[in-house]
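PROTEIN DATA CARD
Card holder: Tetratricopeptide repeat protein
Chain length: 273
Origin: Sinorhizobium psoraleae
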Amino acid sequence: MTAQAICSPLLRRLVQSTAVVLVALSLAGCAGQQKKELTTGSIPTLSKPVQSMNATELSQAAESIGQALERNPRDREAGLNYANLLRMTGRNEQALAVMQQVAINHPSDREVLGAYGKAQAAAGQLEQALTTISRAQTPDRPDWKLKSAEGAVLDQLGRSSEARLRYREALDLRPNEPSVLSNLGMSYLLTKDLRTAETYLKSAADQPGADSSVRQNLALAVGLQGRFQEAEAIARQELTAEQAEANVTYLRSMLSQQGAWKQLAKADDADTN
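Structure generated from the sequence above:
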């Protein structure tokens, strides 16, 4: 099986079930990335930064901002923030419905269109997401976040070569951006080129501004190569004890599927013979 091969459904489920950037996207994609996307403006004051909120607190924040949106359905910031929080709590279909209304009210807003595309992708509407993200992009002022988002959607569609081209275009616009390097690394992980994936993910983790989600992706790539202690050490970095233990527990759960990974590799190799 070559690095360019399209990954099978089992492998795709294995990788997608981690909180990778690919659909959360920088889709630019993951929970940590989405938490940074909350905008300011008319949203209610939150009791603490969303980065440190647990699931219950995130749900309460979403309810508060949702009420603000009900009071003013055309409020752009409230709509964007509410949709982001809904995605962070796994309510992707509701987030998509919110973003549909925001896009109707702000049809030419690039940020809104980009967020709408992310919501479509998170809800599984991948072809529609590509169209929406393409509408948001402008040739004279290309946006690296949209390039990365497009790449993430293409990866979900199994079009890895096109996806990696978009990531490299994003890196041309934003050199060494950790979220894009992480997406590029996860693209290689999706096609089981684990060494190349680790190289890009390590580079991403070494960049200033790399968040926890980047390190968790690196931990997954390292663990899938059998270096479990090293993977756990990475997963514990710069987190509270509770967050670290939760991440390590999840990582162990993912890596317990090593047998399925190896069986899949053998099946794929057999298909190419």
